Amino acid sequence: MDNAVLTVLIAMLGGAIRVSTPFMFVALGETLTEKSGRINLGLEGNLVLGAMVAYATSYLTGSPWLGVLAAGMSGLFLGALHGYICKLPKVNDIAVGIAMMSFGTGLAFFFGKPFIQPQAPKLDSIPLGDWTGNPALAQALQVNPLFFVGIFLAVAMSWAFRNTKWGLIVRMTGDSAASAKAMGVSVDLVRFLATAAGGFLAGIGGAFLSLYYPGIWNQGLSSGQGLMAVALVIFARWDPIRAIFAALFFGAAGAIGPALQAVGITSGYYFFNAAPYILTLVIMIISAGSKASARDVPGELSITK
Predict the structure, then answer these.
(1) d(CA 75, CA 133)
(2) Confidence at residue 10, expressed as pLDDT on a 0 to 100 scale
(3) 111-144 pLDDT per residue, tens
(4) Taking CA 66 as the corner, what is the angle to CA 61 and CA 68, rounded to the nearest 5 degrees?
(5) pLDDT tens digits along 156-193
(6) How does DSSP classify residue 121?
(7) What backbone torsions phi and psi does residue 209 show, to the nearest 5 degrees?
(8) Which of 28, 109, 233, 247 has the fewest beta carbons closer than 10 A?
(9) Domain ranges of the chain
(10) CATH of 3-114+145-300, one of 3.30.230, 1.10.3470, 3.40.720, 1.20.1250
(11) Is the dihedral of CA 245, 246, 249, 255 positive or negative?
(12) To which H or E segment does residue 126 belong?
């Protein structure tokens, strides 16, 4: 195989693993939330606030894993706040999500200014490719543990939806609130807990951004990844396992531009860098008329009414 082609493919492999991880956590969080019958468009705010809190905590304590936990807790706070507000009468969950996105990013920008310059301890990676003898492949296979945590959570969530009482309750609440109430289930409580847990996962996705890749904290860190991950959920048809593959697909698309630049192809660089955003638009257009998506969508989501 031509060396340039091989270099691009290896770079896309590494990009798929690195770039997909925050997508993965936000998509899993939104999958859980939407399975309960609620949409949370505010996870971009969870992602950005999680990134700032993780970086600040790692800098102040010297422990990046404490930073990950703190990021999750910040996401839990925003998710719980979103869930509580949506319990109030005549409140639209989409409007609340947009407000929470602005609130989360605003908090991150306000409190995060002192941490733009300092260097915080970063998360380590697991070298899975040293045995190959190929430096480029070894670099691509430097995998952060959070990637494997995300895969484990997707498998566990998929199993729980199908095989546990709690999974059944979440699905029933998302498909038919009336049926859930008839079974004695508190719909508001289920949705509150699902939204809070989804926010926790999105916050961890933010920790990956600031503590591993790209491994910095600044106000333009997210680039809309939280919103794109919502499109991933529709593309994955509300299935956690499919969400992992969709995140990898987006990650590979995001790596096309840098991969081509690495082999000297600079023409159309900005177009290729826009690949994830173009994919988001394409997915939304295709999903709008997809019978499969219409069949799998939770019946209680506001977009179905």
Answers:
(1) 40
(2) 77
(3) 999 999 899 999 999 988 777 777 777 777 889 9
(4) 130
(5) 999 999 999 999 999 999 999 999 999 999 999 999 99
(6) P
(7) -60, -45
(8) 109
(9) 3-114+145-300
(10) 1.10.3470
(11) negative
(12) strand 126-127
- 142's enclosing H/E stretch is strand 142-143
Type of residue found at 155: V
What is the CB neighbour count within 10 angstroms for residue 118?
Answer: 11
| Residue-by-residue DSSP string for 4-64 | HHHHHHHHHHHHHHHHHHHHHHHHHHHHHHHHTT---TTHHHHHHHHHHHHHHHHHHHS-H
DSSP string of 186-223, one letter each residue = -HHHHHHHHHHHHHHHHHHHHHHHHHTSS----TTSST
Distance between CA atoms of residues 214 and 304, nearest Å = 37
H or E element in which residue 68 lies: helix 64-86
The string of pLDDT tens digits covering residues 73-92 is 999 999 999 999 999 988 99
Contacts of 214 by beta carbon, 8 Å cutoff, 6+ apart: 221
Question: What is the spatial distance between Cα 239 and Cα 84, in angstroms, rounded to a whole number?
Answer: 25
Instruction: Mention every residue, 6+ apart, whose C-beta is less than 8 A from residue 7.
Output: 136, 259, 262, 263
CA 240 to mean position of chain CA atoms: 12
Q: What is the mean pLDDT of residues 17-45?
A: 94
Element (H, E) at 143: strand 142-143
Joined together, the tokens standing for residue 247 give 């995140």
Cα dihedral 33→36→41→47 (10° resolution):
-10
Provide CB contacts within 8 A for 150, sequence distance 6+.
21, 24, 25, 28, 244, 247
Distance of alpha carbon 131 from alpha carbon 137, whole angstroms? 10
